[in-house]
Amino acid sequence: MAFASGKVLLFGEHAVVHGEPAIAAGLDRGVVATRHDADELRLVVPAWDLDVRAGDGSRVGRAIEALAGTLPAEARRGRFEVSPSIPPGAGLGSSAALAVAVARAALSVANDLADEELVAAAALASERVFHGNPSGLDHTVAMRGGLIRFRRGTPPIVDPLSAAETLSLVVAPVEPGADTGAMVRGVARRVDHHPGLELLAAIGRVVDRAAACIRDGDIEAVGELMDINHGLLAALGVSTPGLDAACHRARNAGALGAKLTGAGGGGAIVALAAAEGADEIAAALGPGAFVATVAGGNHHG
Ligand code: PMV
């Protein structure tokens, strides 16, 4: 049995694909995968109505085939029963958490196979099937959890961030998410159409300021920077009326800031609550909204 975290992107999605930094937090919700011996490679996720086999032509089938292809031969078979506590396709890292949990469970067939580099390579292969050009952020957070500043690369730069004050987040799935690969291509097209606007670099500067404010415990500034990041994502064409409305609802319910999280075009928002305010914001955002806390003080990573 193996667990992997879901994630919420606090700052920097999309720009991270183009080399800018991003900040993400692992959730204590995620995906648990259990391996059963079998002569086939099969993935069953009852909560998502999913039952696929490697080679059945489905996208998830191709993803687990790609994942297994990176593993040692003895780890390439099994029936994997998966129990998620995050919704699929909402920008909360479900596909990466699924890949990491399945890779860990697959490698559990033999004690000497447990190797996080193998897990990372397997998850990246799976993410490529889903996302085309993944930054690697999702599976990095799925593997390690915590609060990190991430920059794409081979290898990526992953800096644990310690928050001086606890961040009280409200995450709310708003509507079905869009295809991440299509959203990433749409952003690339818009940026190419209007060279020189530096929207991605502006997001990078927001991320750097946000990292400093998180370290210093300036929570109000962090909230304001979330609003600014949402505006820049809207400028890139990845927000929707539903996501915009949910951000306004969160702010009206007292949030210090709110933004879409993940690829956009639908999916989820994340709001930052002042001390004690999270439950009221979650109630305003409706069923499905949940509170996620990033510990502050002497917490490291
Ligand atoms: O797939 P999602 O919705 O968790 O978002 C991924 C974040 C992007 O920056 C849009 C893509 C990436 O690979 O980092």
Essential attributes:
binds (3R)-3-hydroxy-3-methyl-5-(phosphonooxy)pentanoic acid, alpha+beta, 301 residues, 4-stranded antiparallel β-sheet, globular, 7-stranded mixed β-sheet
Note down, in words, how this protein is organized.
With 301 residues, the chain is of the alpha+beta class. It contains nine helices and eleven strands. The strands form two sheets. Strands 1, 2, 3, 4, 5, 6 and 7 form a seven-stranded mixed β-sheet that branches. A hairpin with a 5-residue loop joins strand 9 (257-261) and strand 10. Helix 8 packs antiparallel against helix 9 (278-285). The protein is globular, with a radius of gyration of 19 Å. The mean pLDDT is 94. It binds (3R)-3-hydroxy-3-methyl-5-(phosphonooxy)pentanoic acid. (3R)-3-hydroxy-3-methyl-5-(phosphonooxy)pentanoic acid binds next to helix 4 and helix 5.
What secondary-structure arrangement, pairings included, does this model have?
Blueprint lengths: L1 E10 L10 E15 L4 E5 L4 E4 L5 H11 L8 E7 L9 H14 L8 H16 L5 H8 L2 E5 L5 E4 L6 E9 L4 H14 L5 H18 L2 H17 L5 H12 L4 E5 L5 E7 L4 H8 L4 E5 L7
Parallel strand pairs: 3-5
Antiparallel strand pairs: 1-2, 2-5, 2-6, 3-4, 6-7, 8-10, 8-11, 9-10
This protein binds (3R)-3-hydroxy-3-methyl-5-(phosphonooxy)pentanoic acid.
